[in-house]
Amino acid sequence: MKEVMLDCLGEACPIPLVKAENKLKELEIGDMLIVQIDHSCAMKNVPEWARKEGYNVEVEEVDDGEWEVIIEKTK
Amino acid sequence: MAEQTRPAASRRSSANRKPKKNQIPFGFITVAFIVVVAILLNMNSTNVAFFWITGTAFGFILQKGRFCFTASMRDPYLTGSTSITRAVIIAFALTTIGFTAIKYGYSSAGLPIPGMSYVVPISIATLIGAFMFGIGMVIAGGCASGTLMRVGEGFFMNAIALVFFIIGSLWGAHDFGWWKEFFISKGPSIFLPDVFGWMGAVLLQLFVLLGLYVLAEQYEKKRGSSH
Amino acid sequence: MEKKNGKFFDRMKSNEYYIKWLKNPFTYIVAAVLLSLFQIVTLAVSKNPWGVSGVFAVWGAWIYEAVGGSVDKWYYFASSGAQATLEGGLLNHADSWRNLGIIFGALAATLLASGFKIKKIKSKKQVIAAALGGLLMGYGARIAFGCNIGALYSGIASLSLSGWVFAIGMFAGAVVGSKLLVKYFM
Questions:
Q1: Membrane-spanning residues where (chain C) (predicted)?
Q2: Weakest-pLDDT range from B6-20, B159-173, C41-55
Q3: How far is C-alpha B109 from the geometric centre of its chain's CA atoms?
Q4: What is the pLDDT at residue A75?
Q5: Contact across the interface for A66 and C117, Cβ inside 8 Å
Q6: Based on the structure, what is the number of domains in chain C?
Q7: In angstroms, what separates the C-alpha of C6 from chain A's closest C-alpha?
């Protein structure tokens, strides 16, 4: 059970999503991936993708225009 | 929107974060600015003021909806998601119905049909230009409307893209004569109602859009289960 | 006064209609319906559908002429209509104001959601990607009679076959662009 931060601040779509996808493959079940983003589209498509994959997802607005997408690798 | 799903098992503490500034007042100032500019433009020309207002509406909707034409073309290939693609298809279908109603109204009254300057010749230049555009929008992180919208959101990267979009446009305009002479002038302009009749053209197009919608949804399901 | 305002706007943040309409994003479908509505309004009032990228050529020509160049001999700007547009200036060019409006409309939406942030350049790669992408979009849009809005969206909605041809080219370009992006710009 570890937490991994993925810094995607300043990255434009679709890079945060592709990075998150690659990172999540490396993680083990039960691990948490925290994707930091400031791209308003990624704030919608990263959670959408992760939910579709069946992971637990939470989006938190940490600052104005900055979000953390917390993904728990459940399977 | 339902952003609050089941909470993940363990949560990091978010105690040591600086308090957020409230930007809402600046939002209202921007809205007031938009209104003032509209009033000033209206003194000169109502048409210009109308364009300004519709522009702000388009920008507002694009941003609020995170509506991204780039993603609609890119995501099916890159991530297998077609949710924006399907929304774009819906927009095409709805606008087709509205546009055709207006056009038919003019046509049946014996008036010149509006917007026919958007029915343009089809040639290899259309394909090459669209292909270049497709590559450009994906690597620049935004299409024409998306680039403008993201400049408004504060992206430096898109501001650079906008500058080079303008340079590229000038370059394209410079070479346009050549393309026109060798390719565009030989291409036909095809207005679908001329071929299929008004009703036929609308039904055909809506049918094609419906087919694409179903295809997009099935494709997403198929790709989703494959990995 | 200042403080009272601050409190007013802070209270606003928890208002359910604020959250629904200004804070949270619209669904894609809502945006699609609203865009269609304004497209139809645009055609009905101005007799032309929405277009974006043609304006950029005009802006380019203005800048080029400001630094001493001339586009008068270019086929693209040779028509009397294009010449009138260039001479009329920004204040009389409605299409320019629509593009500026997109920027300000998006800015207003972002600020009202309290989500504005200046996003600086992160790497050299981003600069190259943005510059190259911008050039490709600009050039491509000129020879194909428009961009994703004018050639694609308005083209298809105008029942022009050119819109569909543009869609095919654009989709192929997006696939190639995705490959380039993942390989070189990530």
A1: 21-45, 97-116, 128-153, 159-182
A2: B6-20
A3: 31
A4: 79
A5: yes
A6: 1
A7: 16
What's the domain range around C186?
A: 119-186
Within a domain: residue B195?
A: no
Structure tokens, C112: 């009202």
State the pLDDT confidence band at B15, using cuts at 50, 70 and 90: very low
The average confidence (pLDDT) of chain A is 90
Contact between B94 and C38 under an 8 Å Cβ cutoff? The reply is: no
Residue of B nearest to A62 (CA): B17
- Which chain A residues touch C126 with a CB distance below 8 Å? 10, 12
Domain A3-72 has CATH 3.40.50.450: no
Mean pLDDT, residues B49-55: 98
- Across the B:C interface, residue pairs with CB atoms under 8 Å apart total 551
Question: What is the complex's ipTM, to 2 decimals?
Answer: 0.95
When pLDDT is averaged across residues C140-166 and rounded to a whole number, the result is 97
Task: Show the tokens assigned to B118.
Answer: 């958007």
Which residues lie below 8 Å from residue C174, measured CB to CB, with a gap of 6+? B70, B73, B74, B77, B134, B135, B137, B138
Domain boundaries, chain A: 3-72
> Which three-class secondary structure state does DSSP give residue B153?
helix
User: What tokens appear for A29 in the block?
Assistant: 């079940």
Min Cα–Cα distance to chain A from B78, Å: 8
Q: Is residue C110 one of the residues assigned to a domain?
A: no
End-to-end CA distance of chain A: 13
Question: Which residue of chain C has the CA closest to A22?
Answer: C182
Out of C110, C117, C186, name the one closest to residue A15 (CB). C186
Contact A56 B153 (CB under 8 A): no
A18 CB-near residues (< 8 Å, 6+ apart): B78, B79, C182, C186
Do B129 and B184 have their domain in common?
yes
Which one, of B120, B130, B118, B123, lies nearest residue B69 by Cα? B130
Q: How many domains does chain B have?
A: 3
Q: Are residues B110 and B215 in the same domain?
A: yes
Residues in chain C: 186
Query: What does each C-alpha distance from A6 to A3, A70, C120 come to in angstroms?
Result: 10, 10, 18
C-alpha count within 13 angstroms, C-beta hemisphere, residue C180: 21
Which DSSP string do the residues of C112-166 spell out, in sequence order? HTT----B----HHHHHHHHHHHHHHHHHHHHTT--IIIIIIHHHHTTBHHHHHH
Q: Are B145 and C148 in contact (CB under 8 A)?
A: yes
For B93: left if phi > 0, alpha if psi spans -120 to 50, otherwise beta; the answer is alpha
**Within a domain: residue B6?**
no
Nearest to C94 by CA among C137, C145, C42: C42
Q: Residue B165: give the domain boundaries.
A: 120-189
SS3 category, A68: strand
Q: Are residues B185 and B126 in the same domain?
A: yes
